Hints:
The structure is a single chain. The protein has 7 helices and 11 strands. With 207 residues, the chain is an alpha/beta fold. The protein has one domain: Rossmann fold (3-Layer(aba) Sandwich), CATH 3.40.50. The strands form 3 sheets. A 7-stranded mixed beta sheet has the order 5-2-1-6-7-11-10, with helices on both faces. Strand 3 and strand 4 form a beta hairpin. It starts with a strand and ends with a helix.
Amino acid sequence: MRIVFPLYPGFTSLDVIGPYEVLSRLPEAEAVFAAVRPGPVTGEGGVTVTATHALADLTEADIIVVPGGPGTREAVSDAAYVAWLKAIDATTTWTTSVCGGSLLLGAAGLLTGLEATSHWTAADLLPVFGATFTLQRVVFQGKVVTAAGVSSGIDMALALFARIEGDDAAQTVQLHIEYDPQPPFDHGSPAKATPDQIQRVRKLVMG
C-alpha cells in the first residue's frame, strides 16, 4: 500500500507527521515523501523533511495525504504540484488532506460539489473551489477525506485506518501511539475562543 505525502515549501509538520505515525502502520505500507523536486523541503518553522521522490515519478498511489501550512498560498499556484494532484487522484483509493491541504485539493478540482473541512480560517476560501465548508473535524465524501486544522490529521488517519482495517486495528494503533488527548485547555475551536484570540489567530494564519 503506497501512501504519498506530497510536500511543498512551508508545509505544517504535524499535518504530515501526525497522519504518518498512524497510516505507516497499515499492513505492507510504503510511506513516501515526495515533492516537485526531490531533496530537503523546509516546512513551517524550519522543520525539514527529505522528499525521496519527484512527484512526476509517482504515477499511482493508494493514499495521498496533502498537508496544509503557510506555503499553501504559493502551492495553489504551482502548476506542476496541482496538476499532479489531479492526475494521481485518478489512481487513488483514498485522497485526503489536513488543514489547508483541502485548498490544494480544491485547486485541483477535486472538491467540486463536496462538503469539506479545513482550518477554520479557510471557511470563506473553500467555496471558491466549489466546496461547502463544514466545521466537522473529519469529513468523508466518497474517497475524499478532509480534516480540519493541524492536530485533526491524527483523527483523520485513525478514522481512515478503521475504514481500511477495522475498528479494533485502529484502536490498537491508537493505544500504540498513546493518543489519549487531555489538553490543558478546552479552547481548540473558534466557538470556545474570545474574539481577540480569534483575531490574533486570523492574523497569524492569513498574514
